[in-house]
Amino acid sequence: MTKPKGFQYSSYSKKWRSSSSFPFFKHIILLLLLVTCLHAKGQKNDKKAIGKIDSLIVVADDLYMNGKDRELILIVEKKIIPESKKNNYERGLCYGHFYIASCLSFAGKHLKSNIYIKKSQSYTSYLKSDFMQSSRNYGLIGDNLTDLGLYTAAAQNYHKAVSEIEKIKTKNYNDLLTQSTTYNTMANLYNIQNFQDSAYSYLLKERKILRRIPLHIAYREVGSSYSSLGNYYFFKKNLDSAEYYLQKSLSILNNKEHPYEIEALIGMGDLYVYRKRNDKAIQYYQEALSKASNDNLRSLGIIYKKLGDFYFKCNDIEKARKYSILGLRFEDSINVNMDRDRNFIVNEILEGEKEIYENENRKVNYEIELLVGVIILLLIIIYAFQKSKKQNDLKLDIKELEIAKKAAYTNELEQKLKISLHEVIEAAKKNSPVFFEKFQSLHPDFSIKLLEINGSLTTNELILLAYVYLNFSSKEIASYTFRSYRTVQSRKYMLRKKLNLETNQDLYLWLKRKT
User: Fold this and answer.
1) Which helix (H) or strand (E) holds 401?
2) Is the dihedral of CA 203, 205, 210, 211 positive or negative?
3) Quick one: pLDDT band at residue 382, thresholds 50, 70, 90?
4) Which of 262, 270, 218, 284 is nearest to 242 (CA)?
5) If DSSP states are collapsed to H, E and C, what string results for 101-150?
6) How many CB atoms lie within 10 A of CB 385?
7) Which of 299, 287, 226 minimizes the C-alpha distance to 255?
8) Rounded to whole angstroms, how far apart are CA atoms 245 and 264?
9) 340-345 long-range CB contacts below 8 Å, 24 or more apart?
């Protein structure tokens, strides 16, 4: 008898339900559903957390642009970095460490600033896609090196900053602001080195960029640009143009509580001192002092020095002494840190340059060995095909080849050394701030070998030893460095003790042998 279809279905259903495997599969399916739900919830939470961090970065960037370092540090250390670590969010960590580095740089703590900027640069996979932040990192390194007087290295980093930002094909306002800021810092660098025409060309480039950005977005940068132009024209003694641009800067930055406003106020004070309008000059200096915070040691030091000089010219000795002491106190506190930071960073740069030099040297040696191998092979081939000719025709003067090879090698090295001995000697005679950098470029092992002998040697001591190495007499060193002959002799005597030289040992010959 044929079973009805309904019976067949019922029988199959019953068989399935009665199977012992059903509870097992049921549990597996439920477990998979639960894991999927939890994973989806976790992803939702991650996206929410990352969105929150991105919002905090927007707030932090506004604080950074307005120079509000205390509030910036607070939001970075309490929120951005902890949340970014928890979510392994490279963008938040990269920006967070950059903001801390920026605040430390502004406070004159350049060594600590460099440590944090290196942390920011360590997120290489993220920075490959964020050229703006990569540019800001290089720019901040350049700022630190400029403050420490390492101008050549600073310029190299500023050029890298420009190169990074130029990789962006279509720039938004933030990208353009970063580019304009880099041009401004390069202008500042050339201004410090007294290359006014170069400084002016970068200020014009900055103005061209800033014209593409609405003023309410770029008011800080525009104010700084006008201030820099005012100072440029003041240097050129074009007083009307100087006043015009400084006033424009103040009209934009007025009551914005930004450090750029202080620069413009100091500039106006200098202008009125030159015009012998003491009443106006002191008004601007005092306003600058009232707006400078204790975090901005650099600005306070400059203002105190300006006030000390001003009151000295006005024959107000009591006030002149008061502000001069305050200025010296700030200058000493900054210089102590700067000397330590400069020594450490110079050593870092020298180590990096030494490694590059050794790598290039190995490469050159390899190329020379390869060239010699090719020459030998060619000689063998020529010899094999020219057996019928006289032996004298086949001989080549190996010495001439060696001389040619060494000449080529020397030529190549001379091309790589951009700084000639003549330039170094001229820089030494002028007591130029870039003398020691140029000397280091010509003699990269000099400081390294001396610091191996005595690691406590200071930058100033190394500079004096560089003068001795160039065979300048004590009288010449005294003349070039504006010191007394006795002071130079005394410093050389102390150096001989630090380097453990015997009394009969010639310092110049000892330096030549050791370095």
Assistant:
1) helix 398-416
2) positive
3) confident
4) 270
5) HHHHHHCCCHHHHHHHHHHHHCCHHHHCCCHHHHHHHHHHHHHHHHHCCC
6) 10
7) 287
8) 9
9) 340/111, 341/109, 341/110, 341/111, 341/114, 341/148, 342/148, 342/149, 342/150, 342/459, 343/458, 343/459, 344/111, 345/110, 345/111, 345/114, 345/144, 345/145, 345/148, 345/150
Please list, residue by residue across 402-440, b when 16 or more beta carbons sit within 10 angstroms of its beta carbon and e when fewer do.
eeeeeeeeeeeeeeeeebeeebbbebbeeebebbbbbbb
Residues 224 and 180: beta-carbon distance below 8 Å: no
Listed in sequence order, the residues at least 6 apart from 282 whose beta carbon sits closer than 8 Å to its beta carbon are: 269, 310
pTM equals 0.56
* Higher per-residue confidence, 112 vs 3: 112
- Predicted local confidence at residue 480, as pLDDT: 87
Pairs from 48-57 (Cβ < 8 Å, separation ≥ 24): 49/83, 49/86, 49/87, 49/89, 50/87, 50/89, 50/92, 52/83, 53/80, 53/83, 53/84, 53/87, 53/89, 53/91, 53/92, 54/91, 54/92, 56/80, 56/83, 56/92, 57/91, 57/92, 57/95
Q: Is the pLDDT of residue 253 over 70?
A: yes
pLDDT at residue number 424: 86
Structure-token match 């060494």, residue found: 406
Residue 14 has pLDDT above 50, yes or no: no
Nearest to 278 by CA among 269, 286, 290, 267: 269
CA distance 220 to 338: 28
Give the CA count within 13 Å in the CB-facing half-sphere of 415: 6
Could you tell me if 394 and 382 are in contact, meaning their C-beta atoms sit under 8 angstroms apart?
yes
Question: Do 446 and 467 contact (CB within 8 A), yes or no?
Answer: no
DSSP state of 4: P
Burial string for 460-476 (b: 16+ CB within 10 Å, else e) reads: ebbbbbbbbbbebebee
- Residue with the larger pLDDT of the pair 335 and 427: 427
106 alpha-carbon distance from chain centroid: 13
**Could you tell me the CA-to-CA distances from 23 to 13, 193, 214, 490 in Å, in that order?**
15, 83, 68, 95
Q: Quick one: tokens of 439?
A: 């000397």
Give the whole-angstrom CA distance, residue 368 versus residue 272.
64
- Between residues 202 and 30, which one has the greater pLDDT? 202
What is the average per-residue pLDDT within 240-255? 91
Q: pLDDT of 441-500, one tens digit each?
A: 888 888 888 888 888 889 888 999 999 888 898 889 888 888 888 899 899 889 888 888
